[in-house]
Amino acid sequence: MTRIGLVSPRPNLVIDTNILLLLLGYQCSQFENLGAPARRRILEEIRGRGAVSPEWFDELWLFFQNAAQSAVTQHVIAETYGLRNRLGAFRSRKDLVWRAALEILRSPGIVEVSFQLEELDDLPEYRKILIEIGPTDTGLLYIAQQRKAVLLTEDGPLQHWASVRSIPWLTLNQLGLTS
Q: CB atoms < 10 A from the CB of 38, how many?
């Protein structure tokens, strides 16, 4: 298993859809000046998993801001937009969501990386993965491998294939181990 406990202080990251949704929700909550309890409630709703401390989301944000570079694929951007209803209290605030998304792209900055599905389908080592987990997650694996980056994800099948491909990955629960 290629999980990371400690990573270099400024890793290159490749971010999956659910993590990008959390970052977007965090940025929206910053723009709205929400206190820690309200921010935590909204972000837990977006994440769709158990309760965590407000500091846990702050740790995610700091980890993201301190990365040497963060990348997403055009498929992650499209999925995130398609899932904007998961943004809880912000779902009806299209102006706020777009402002937050643009701010995240600018500062700390996310690189949007494109790939063609044909590229992945032409690579025998990715063809099976493409069929099993689809183009978005397979593209994340491909980009992480190309950029020698850490994949930031909570997706079990994506973690499995990252391990198979020897691509380092990190879950949000492991962020406490990165300091």
A: 14
